[in-house]
Amino acid sequence: MALLAQLRRGTLEYCVLALLDGGERYGLDLVRRLGQVEGMMTSEGTVYPLLSRLRRDGLVATTWRESPSGPPRRYYHLTPGGRQALDAFAREWASFRDAVDYFLDAGGDHDERHRR
Amino acid sequence: MNATVADQLVAEYLARLDAALSDLPAARREELLEQVSEHIATARAELGDQAGEAEIRTMLDRLGDPAAIAAEAGQRPAESLESSQPRPGWREVAALILLPVGGIVIPVVGWFVGVALLWSSEHWSVRSKLLGTLVVPGGLALPLSLGMFAGSAEYCSTPPTLVGGASPDSVCTGGPSGWLEVLGPVAFVLLLLAPIATVIYLGLQLRHRPRTAPAMP
Predict the structure, then answer these.
(1) Rounded CA gap, B159 and B50, in Å?
(2) How far apart are CA A7 and CA A17, in angstroms?
(3) Which residues in chain A have Cβ-Cβ distances shorter than 8 Å to B47?
(4) How far apart are CA B211 and CA B217, in angstroms?
(5) Cβ contact B45–A74 (<8 Å)
(6) Which of A19, A35, B98, B216 has the greatest count of CB atoms below 10 A from its CB?
(7) Within 10 Å of residue B92's Cβ, how many Cβ atoms?
(8) Distance to chain A for B157, nearest Cα, Å
(9) By the 8 A CB rule, do B42 and B95 touch?
(10) By three-state DSSP, how is residue A68 classified?
């Protein structure tokens, strides 16, 4: 679990940015979508500090919108800076993931005897 | 019937969250409370009026322990721990100086700069910012300019007593009406004290804010 928390720490914010890449979303919608994938967050509430940090860092911005049911909602959307950060991460992540995969997979190739 | 139990559960949850967030600057605490309140309100609107106590409990359970939310809000990868827990700096000091006297140094503009600094700071809540803006617009410049205005008219009532009726009629034509003579000085003193009291209040808020850094896990 500690390992998962470590991995999540640096990546969850980019998952949030990626979710907003398709268009603006309100808090509950965003949180529910993150929750659909096992292991992405500890609890729904912990996403909100992350969202306000992204807002303070200028990666997302918010607008208020009336909703068909219930109270007005705060919609989050990517800023140009947020999109840049997301693009940069996506590139880095792809090569980093490949590098990790390389060692995880290659370990078996080099050392087949130990596997038996 | 369900509504009251549900309302109570929600109120308790938000109170626990508010308490857990007490180490954060006021503006950030407010933002988080608003976000979570909106989450709850939207979820309840989805659940509908028929939502039972169990459904509300499940929804709050999914939101998670307020302490976990507070921990997430307090912690930050080392590089911006400082910016997330800023100490009061030049911005706050300048705001506290410019709000009362800025309008005297540079009429009107000085005060507006103070207001801009006040609202851009993360150290005060919206309530305090409204207080700082509305009590008193213009700061000390307002009562002082009013005082000069009224003062020029007030002299007319004093010469008769001093001079002993030398030329009472000509002096008193422009004098203030009776109620203004009584209320004027009271209002003047109040307008003078209010901005000072406000600045003291805002200053104390900076001092009372806990400065303890959140424990890193």
Answers:
(1) 78
(2) 17
(3) none
(4) 18
(5) no
(6) B98
(7) 21
(8) 57
(9) no
(10) coil
- In chain A, residues with a C-beta closer than 8 Å to the C-beta of B35 are 27, 48, 51-52, 74
Q: Judge: A48–B39 Cβ closer than 8 Å, yes or no.
A: yes
B86 min Cα distance to partner chain A (Å): 13
Cβ neighbours of B35 (radius 10 Å): 22
Reference A70, options B46, B63, B8; nearest CA is: B46
CA–CA separation, B157 and B181 (whole Å) = 9
Note whether A60 and A76 are within 8 A (CB). Answer: yes
- Convert the pLDDT of each residue in B151-195 to its tens digit: 555 454 444 555 554 444 544 444 556 677 777 788 888 888 888
Amino acid at B123: H
One-letter identity of residue B160? P
Residues in chain A, overall count: 116
Write out pLDDT tens, residues A34-48: 988 887 888 899 999
- Alpha-helical segments (H) within B48-125: 53-63, 66-74, 81-84, 90-105, 109-120
Number of neighbours of residue A28 by Cβ within 10 angstroms: 20
Minimal CA–CA distance to A15: which of A98, A73, A82, A102?
A82
Query: What is the least distance, in Å, from the CA of A98 to any CA of chain B?
Result: 25
Whole-prediction pTM value?
A: 0.58
Residue A22 touches chain B, beta carbons under 8 Å: no
What is the phi/psi pair of residue A76, to 5°? -105, 135
Paired residues of A92 in beta bridges: none
* DSSP result, B188-208: HHHHHHHHHHHHHHHHHHHHH
ipTM over 0.85: no
